[in-house]
């Protein structure tokens, strides 16, 4: 259940709309129809640097949060309930067996102005642009990590990928992606797939112009030209990304106001969560996502003080997250090629203790499968691993390492994101494995780009990972373990199934679920697949996350959701309402 809590800070909070230097020095908003307000720059912080904003290479949540303001696809998610809503397709038709999807595009939508276009003027988007971008999902290229979305599903996807791999791309691109006319696109599938609109909402299906690809080449990672409510003004990597209002954006609100309301969005990249929270309290940030673990008790104390009265409120939003935090294990190499070793590790970890003491109660112990609590999905009937040192020792002995004897010292690879919690969880796991199995674990930290490179190329044996849903469907989590994503050569990158877990029984059940049109039956098949991978100890799930964020009280139309999916199109600032609330 969603919770909204008012917290009160004794210190003065400075309100602002925004200056380019990030200082909150004025309240610059004007009223529009319906009582909404124009003006202001929304400022937020990220604790890790992005590596790419190119739609086919967006693999980090923070990259999606930036790109989602700049690009659009045929459909998108509703920020409040994560349902599928129209974007550049004003309507669509799905045939009876969910094997063909026809999208009717809006007319008169233009790309952002950019020097890659003749005369610098953004041209109209047509179905041909979507065809171009969707064909690129199936191109064998190091910058494309999204082939898995269309692989096996879309007609002609596999054939086009192989033809590119062989250096002779098939004429006409992906046969299942068809331009009917300038404003109509049809996508045909190899089998019934009722959840395909979720795929279409993915960042990989954003539209961008061919001219940008040709003009910028690999630099397209920071040269973002879309159709969204905001366009890129400035990118200084490691410091800031500044987006400004797209003055010619196509969408209007229910009152007839042109969108977006905000003048811009500014992303900062301060690696210290404590400093981020302090900047929020000073009024220099408009939101904070995730609280520093060591400061949670302070925030709870402020909440208690709020009950007694105070001034300058801000809002705390807490929702269960569609994300799982887990430890990955490389199945193709010893010692994790042995299922009993993987089971021993799973039984040796006290997940409830980690959530209660290390995470200060944020989240929920992952005592089930890889799929977190999800509406309509019977996750509680997936039996996971309880904490049992006795069973852990039994399985390790069965694997040939009684009491940890002769077990190789292994390295747990982590990245420094998520504040300090990655380090703290790693240290707790390190201690539990030593105490309960007699195993020595070394912790190694590396930047996220190198972290990903190591696990994708099979160089990492044991690593920290997490998965935030790309779209709200159990399939998005279970797809991480589909054997069809595993390359034959260990050194070849495995972009999604980095564990290289392969199980014919899992794959058969997973594929049956994909082809089931009835949601209840589909979810039951997914549950069965989830249980299969749990029984194989495919991963070590630690906890299902919780999204906690603080927003300034003047921020309006910015609901929290289970994916921390952010759409700034209709967010606005109302300082007058904030002052009235603070005075109460």
Q: Could you outline the blueprint of secondary structure elements for this entry?
A:
Blueprint lengths: L2 E6 L21 E2 L5 E2 L2 E5 L15 H10 L4 E3 L6 E3 L2 E6 L5 E6 L21 H10 L10 H4 L6 H9 L11 E5 L2 E5 L7 H5 L9 H7 L13 E7 L3 E6 L18 E5 L4 H10 L4 E3 L6 H11 L6 E17 L9 H9 L3 H8 L5 E2 L23 H10 L11 E5 L6 H17 L3 E5 L2 H9 L5 E7 L6 H4 L25 H12 L3 H17 L4 E13 L2 E2 L15 E2 L1 H9 L1
Parallel strand pairs: 4-13, 17-18, 17-19
Antiparallel strand pairs: 1-15, 2-3, 5-6, 7-8, 8-10, 9-10, 11-12, 12-13, 14-20, 15-19, 15-20, 16-20, 21-22
Helix pairs in contact: 9-11, 15-16
Provide a compact summary of the structure:
It contains 17 helices and 22 strands. It has 584 residues and is of the alpha+beta class.
Give the beta-strand count: 22
**C-alpha Rg, in Å?**
24 Å
Percentage of β-strand residues: 15-25%
Q: Give start-end ranges of low-pLDDT stretches.
A: 1-25
Please characterize this protein's 3D structure:
With 584 residues, the chain is of the alpha+beta class. It has three domains: 3-46 and 245-311 and 553-583, D-Maltodextrin-Binding Protein, domain 2, CATH 3.40.190; 72-221, Dipeptide-binding Protein, Domain 1 (Dipeptide-binding Protein, domain 1); 320-545, Roll (Dipeptide-binding Protein, domain 3), CATH 3.10.105. Helices cover 28% and strands 20% of the residues. The chain has 17 helices and 22 strands. The strands form six sheets. Strands 1, 14, 15, 16, 17, 18, 19 and 20 form an eight-stranded mixed sheet that branches. Strand 9 and strand 10 form a beta hairpin. Helix 15 (504-515) packs antiparallel against helix 16 (519-535). It is globular, with a radius of gyration of 24 Å.
């Amino acid at each position: 259940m969603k919770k909204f809590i008012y917290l009160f800070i004794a210190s003065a909070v400075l309100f602002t709309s925004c200056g380019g230097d990030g200082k909150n020095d004025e309240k610059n908003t004007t009223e529009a129809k319906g009582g909404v307000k124009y003006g202001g720059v929304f400022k937020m912080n990220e604790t890790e640097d992005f590596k790419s904003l190119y739609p086919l290479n967006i693999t980090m949540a923070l990259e999606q949060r930036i790109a989602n303001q700049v690009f659009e696809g045929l459909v998108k998610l509703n920020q409040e309930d994560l349902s599928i809503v129209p974007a550049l397709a004003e309507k669509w038709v799905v045939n009876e067996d969910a094997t063909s999807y026809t999208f009717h595009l809006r007319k008169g939508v233009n790309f952002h102005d950019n020097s890659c276009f003749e005369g610098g003027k953004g041209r109209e988007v047509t179905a041909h642009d979507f065809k171009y971008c969707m064909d690129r999902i199936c191109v064998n290229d190091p910058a494309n990590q999204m082939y898995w979305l269309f692989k096996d599903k879309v007609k002609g996807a596999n054939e086009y990928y192989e033809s590119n791999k062989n250096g002779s791309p098939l004429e006409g691109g992906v046969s299942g992606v068809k331009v009917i006319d300038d404003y109509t696109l049809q996508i045909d599938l190899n089998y019934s797939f009722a959840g395909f609109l979720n795929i279409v909402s993915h960042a990989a299906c954003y539209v961008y112009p061919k001219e940008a690809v040709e003009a910028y080449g690999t630099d397209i990672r920071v040269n973002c030209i879309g159709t969204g409510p905001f366009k890129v003004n400035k990118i200084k990597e490691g410091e800031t990304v500044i987006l400004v209002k797209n003055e010619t954006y196509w969408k209007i609100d229910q009152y007839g106001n042109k969108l977006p309301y905000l003048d811009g969005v500014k992303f900062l990249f301060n690696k210290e969560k404590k400093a981020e929270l302090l900047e929020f309290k000073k009024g220099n940030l408009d939101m904070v996502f995730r609280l520093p673990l060591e400061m949670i008790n302070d925030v709870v104390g402020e909440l208690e003080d709020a009950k007694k009265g105070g001034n300058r409120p801000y809002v705390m939003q807490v929702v269960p997250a569609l994300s799982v935090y887990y430890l990955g294990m490389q199945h193709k190499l010893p010692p994790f090629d042995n299922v009993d070793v993987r089971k021993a590790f799973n039984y040796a970890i006290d997940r409830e203790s980690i959530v209660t003491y290390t995470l200060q109660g944020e989240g929920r112990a992952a005592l089930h499968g890889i799929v977190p609590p999800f509406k309509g999905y019977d996750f509680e009937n997936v039996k996971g691993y309880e904490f049992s040192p006795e069973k852990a020792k039994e399985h390790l002995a069965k694997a040939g390492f009684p009491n940890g004897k002769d077990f190789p010292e292994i390295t747990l690879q982590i990245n420094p994101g998520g504040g300090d919690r990655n380090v703290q969880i790693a240290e707790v796991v390190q201690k539990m494995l030593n105490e309960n199995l007699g195993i020595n674990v070394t912790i190694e930290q590396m930047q996220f780009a190198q972290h990903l490179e190591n696990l994708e190329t099979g160089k990492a044996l044991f690593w920290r990972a997490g998965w935030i849903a790309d779209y709200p469907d159990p399939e998005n989590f279970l797809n991480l373990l589909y054997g069809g994503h595993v390359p034959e050569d260990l050194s070849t990158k495995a972009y999604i199934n980095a564990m290289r877990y392969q199980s014919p029984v899992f794959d058969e059940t997973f594929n049956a679920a994909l082809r089931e049109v009835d949601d209840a039956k589909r979810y039951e098949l997914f549950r069965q697949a989830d249980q299969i991978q749990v029984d194989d100890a495919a991963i070590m799930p630690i906890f299902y996350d919780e999204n906690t964020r603080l927003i300034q009280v003047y921020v309006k139309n910015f609901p929290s959701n289970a994916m921390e999916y952010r759409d700034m199109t209709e967010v606005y600032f109302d300082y007058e309402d904030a002052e009235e609330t603070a005075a109460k």
